[in-house]
Amino acid sequence: MTDRLDQDNTFFEQTGKREMFVNFGPSHPSMHGVIRIKLIADGEFVKKTEIDIGYLHRGFEKECESCPYPNGFPYTDRLNYVSPLINNFGFAKAVEDLMGLTVPERGEYIRVIMSELSRITDHLTCVGACTMELGAFTAFLYMMKAREWLYEVIESVTGAHLTVSYARIGGVKADLPEGFSEHCLKSLSDVSGVLDEIDVLMTRNRIFYDRTRDVGVMTREEAIAYGVTGPFLRSTGIDYDVRKAFPYHVYDRFDFEIPVGWRGDNYDRYLVRMEEMRQSIRIIRQALDTIPPGPTSVDSEGNVINAAAMADLGKTGRTKNLINLEARVEPTLEGSEKRIHAQVRDACRKAGLPPKDQTYTNIESLMNHFKIVMDGHGVRPPKGETYSFVEGGNGELGFYVVSDGTDHPWRVRCRPPCFPIMSGLHNILEKGQIADIVATFGTVNMIAGELDR
Amino acid sequence: MDQNSILDRVKKEFPDLVLETHSRLGQDTVIISKSGIVEIARFLKEDEKLKFNMLADLTAVDYWKEKPRFEVVYHFLSMENKLRLRVKARVEESDCEIPTLSGLWPGANWYEREVFDMFGIRFTGHPDLKRILMYPDFEGHPLRKDYPKTRHQPLVEYRELNLHGNENTTTSRKKEND
User: What ipTM was reported for this prediction?
Assistant: First the structure.
């Protein structure tokens, strides 16, 4: 052994080089998505790294800016393709904030349930892939199996596994199907069983522990300086979660906790994700217990009142329930009352698409649908800008939308949660060995779809 | 810390640099002149009461045909006070430069590279300003409004499906577009 090491040293002396350039990626089996890490290695140790992204850039922002608002949803499915529902709702929330719409309660509850289902699938994928790369293929298969049960629940609601496009401006595409509650609870208890199994298999597994504990450490200060959010930030000990800090939808009505780590290493990130899945299950159970009946989108069940009465409501500031109303505009001798109506900011009630069964069976809904979807006719939020954010699988998922008053957004910016993590990743890779890159990269949960957009 | 007092505080501290403040849709916004961005950001970060410790997002908007053309938008987050603040600075097309924030937040490095890649706004003092999502020899800046969506710049020439067995059917779509 010593001979070989000596030989190695003479090799270095002869070539005058001790360090070696290694290309990790763009299509390395342990890379979840296409990304390239250029690194300079000294033996097994990583001296310097540079991360190269952009291999999956599809111009999400440019595409969104060149189509009407409702047509942006299919693009958002392709951002974080492991939890597409959260992206859907994030984009919908941004447009709703811009228009001043309030989603009916049942719609908000459905959004919470579907977001949490997505969060579980996201974490299952991340933890599963990470354990597989460290050699635990069984755990990976168990988790993919559990993920599939949840995808079946999602499919029963949205009609698709991944490309769901379930959100609509002002609500959701359709109500929950019959028997959803039982199906969902059954799947959740099954998933909960799988989590217990994984816990037994992995948490005290010597190999897993040694490969992840104190590996890939990011300090609190670094995490904040790089703008890291989500499970990654929480593993360092900061309890920042958008669901608690800036409650949206109806998250403030549920009882759940934010798990935090301490050391900010791979093992803590694994523990945080495992606990978050349990908390998500808790939220879904509470939401299914307390979900109220009623409309799921603004518009699906509107009462009709006089336009002048609506304008009066708007002038006195009682706009909260206006979105559920439909105005009857009567032509008068002076012309039309439409003029008064246009002053009310909630005049853009016609934001949500009518249900598909209505679109196909009656002429009013078909016309409504046409007027919303067709280029040049659609939803027109008032001029302005908003930055809306939700807690995605990897952290704060923000949408900065600028409206110029037309039916196309002037600017859509997506703040992908794994972008800041990747920008700071070189710091934590440079402390470790080449083999640790695989473990660290697994717990980062980089999704190229949202990183490169 | 009250919402109104942030805007007042910033306005009082930098009367010359702050051009306008508003909180439309409940989101506090400060519009400043671009020369003051580093100074104001440092104040927001280090002030004892505000503590805007995180740069949540950095992006730009191209208001084509308006003057000044670009607007660089910063979103700050104060985790302790649960506050958010948007800071905007206009940038002229002829003088497409703004000082970098990467000295204050290392996370600004990649955001600024992306803005440079997509809009062509240069960040003075940036340690490594180069393209990030597009490839190095890409021409133009794709999120500018005058960059047509249909313009193709393939790295490898497109090959068309040869259904009839004719030769020489390989064409470059790039040439057609130019």
Answer: 0.85
